[in-house]
Amino acid sequence: VTKPIAASADIVDEKTIIASQGKELRERLPVVVVLGHVDHGKTTLLDFIRKARVAYREKGGITQHLGAYEAHTPKGNVVFLDTPGHEAFSKIRQRGVKVADIVILIVAADDGVMPQTIESIKRAKSMKVPIVVAINKVDKVEQRRIDVVKRELSQHGLVVEEWGGEVVCVPISAKTGLGVDALLEMVLLQAQMMELRADISGGAKGYVLESKLEKGRGPVATVISQHGKLKIGDYIVSGSTGGRVSSIVDSHGARVLEAMPTIPVLVAGFENLPEAGDYFEVVAKENYRRMLDLASEQKIVIQSKSHSEGAINLIVKTDADSSREALVESITKLSQKAESGFNLLHVGIGNISESDVELAYNTGASIVGLHVKIETNAAVLAQRKKVAVTLFDIIYKLLEELEKRDEKTKKIEFVRVKIGEAEVIRVFDIKNIGIIAGAQVKDGRIV
Ligand code: GDP
Q1: pTM exceeds 0.85
Q2: Residue nearest to atom 2 of ligand 1 (CA)
């Protein structure tokens, strides 16, 4: 994948030579992110490509997702960011780091350009990342819908090639796979024009895409190096944690000794869980402890509708750092528009333990878990102490439940408004009907 470019001096311009002094620039793979409106087919497309283009070499290898994968195509390889909801992606973006080289903008042909399509266009443009458009779901629409979508796109500044613009647009069906190879080819063409290079002379520097606790292996993280090779035995620092790289597994499930820039790999050897979206950097062994001590002095403070009165106390447990972030962000958002809001007393990673239950009991909180289980003794304790524990597999179900709980705290207010006045003149007590008043309206009206 990486061949030296210094040898072919004819393709290296003066600027590159100056920039490359003391550096060892190599070609690197393009990193691609799929953006688009919800339900337009992002997941389906990523799943299709993963199934068709990623072969898992080892049985029992990594079959769970890494948050990114390297797809093989006859014309070259492409790295896809496959992070659910792209939490890490948006965090990295907030820090102004350009992660993706190319955006595939997916637009469902039946639905056309929608708010998140427009948002994605803006996002790609502000990061100056080229867009390749995939018009999806062409298996379920008439041909003319494709032109309708193209016209809508042109209204948002994306003029397709056939209409004299520069935007490459490929009709696809993520479901049947129709056109997906053509799309990959266009992405690779775009990448070739960009002449993507990485400097591999120094230690690896990059970012964490995902992290989680793995049984027997402790904290592991998917990382992508932007420059430099990452090797087994390297000391790395990331956010407030770090470690010595003890194993590297690529997205095909194969154990490797080193990872080239832009190749997503799962790394073990961290002392604690690094955070999705954090930078990592290889440091010299002798500096490692000192840098780690410095870094761990910084503590994360979770902000919510900060311990406001009447708010619902919550303890949240989840399986991975990326879902933790997504949850904190969503709950904070929910809190802002909510009736009472939530106090996030503790947001942790891992199964629900006795100490979580103790904390909940002592603070009058309830516990919600996402993609986690409750330990048996913790379940017994929760039952005894009447601590509510609810487990979820899907984030939006969890949020829906929180919304419901918040709704219930709504105070109902009764307001009396006088619209009329009457004087009772005579009362009739009628069997089977009740008491009836004969009255005369003195003011306003009676409805
Ligand atoms: P996302 O929200 O953008 O990730 O969208 P999904 O990938 O979850 O797709 C939303 C729905 O559209 C799912 O029910 C898919 O099966 C369906 N879908 C996605 N791509 C296609 C396609 O090419 N053709 C058809 N007919 N349905 C599709």
Answers
A1: no
A2: 39
